[in-house]
Design a protein that fits this description.
Elements lengths: L12 H16 L1 H15 L1 H8 L4 H13 L3 E7 L2 E8 L1 H8 L8 H13 L4 E9 L2 E8 L4
Antiparallel strand pairs: 1-2, 2-4, 3-4
Helix pairs in contact: 1-2, 2-6, 3-4
């Protein structure tokens, strides 16, 4: 997997990300923020998107498992041929922001949804994000057609 960092983990990057979300959202608006986040999903995670485009969800699965496992997130991942469902019971980002004494940005969950949408752009897959409660969400990746 291209994105598998295994060096020392500094969770404080969530604080920087939170501040950046607030800065962009407040200064340039939510549409600009969505555009940046989608572009991140589309371009930064290009190899995941390219594999999804040909029907291969293996790198997406590895990516989701690795990062939530690495950050000690509480989650459950259910996989079938045309559906990936990841229920996050305790978001590692929100947990870390609270530990740092920071209020999570109103756009912290938007980030997840838009990055996921960018990864699915121009592929047979689409994504949904259901917010259940603070730090608790369900991320769905649904294959709508064969490649």
């Amino acid at each position: 997997m291209r994105y598998r960092e295994d060096n020392e983990l500094h969770l404080d990057f969530h604080g920087t990300t939170n501040t950046t979300l607030n800065y962009v959202g407040e200064r340039f608006g939510v549409d600009a923020l969505k555009s940046i986040l989608r572009k991140t999903g589309r371009d930064v995670y290009r190899s995941i998107r390219e594999k999804l485009a040909v029907g291969d969800a293996s790198e997406l699965l590895e990516h989701l498992n690795w990062f939530y496992y690495r950050e000690k997130g509480r989650y459950a991942l259910t996989v079938s041929e045309d559906r990936i469902v990841m229920e996050v019971f305790e978001c590692p980002a929100i947990r870390q922001l609270k530990k740092l004494g920071l209020k999570p940005s109103e756009w912290v969950c938007l980030q997840t949804g838009e990055v996921n949408a960018g990864m699915c752009e121009n592929t047979p897959w689409r994504t949904e994000l259901e917010l259940v409660g603070e730090g608790h969400c369900i991320q769905r990746f649904i294959r709508e057609r064969q490649p």
